[in-house]
Design goal:
It is a single chain. This protein is globular. It is mainly β and 87 residues long. The protein has one domain: Elongation Factor Tu (Ef-tu), domain 3, CATH 2.40.30.10. Helices cover 9% and strands 49% of the residues. The chain has a 7-stranded antiparallel sheet. The chain has one helix at 32-39, and strands spanning 2-6, 9-13, 17-22, 42-45, 48-59, 65-71, 82-85. The chain contains 1 helix and 7 strands; from the N terminus they run βββαββββ. The N and C termini lie close together (7 Å).
């Protein structure tokens, strides 16, 4: 299990699932493909594990990378939770 990021925002989207987003300084030197590989196909938040449906990497005006991950299912995810890769 590898720590990926702290959840900075989380919300539910009908027909998609839960979207969690956050940042990690290690993302700055990585490509989108490398970040998607790091996240993998399953993640853990607290005691729950989720299938990863999609990973989107966006870049701010300052060049900082933000990662949003769509998770299968519907659950409450608290801000500040730590997201781990299970892949």
């Amino acid at each position: 299990m590898k720590e990926i990021m702290h959840v900075e925002d989380a919300f539910s989207v009908k027909d998609i699932g839960v979207i969690v987003s956050g940042r990690n300084p290690i993302f700055e030197s990585m490509t989108t493909a490398e970040i998607k590989f790091l996240v993998g196909s399953r993640v853990r938040i607290a005691e729950d594990s989720f299938e990863v449906k999609d990973v989107v990497v966006s870049e701010s005006f300052l060049g900082k990378k933000n990662v949003s991950i769509a998770l299968a299912g519907d659950t409450q995810v608290a801000r500040g939770s730590i997201l781990y890769s299970l892949s």
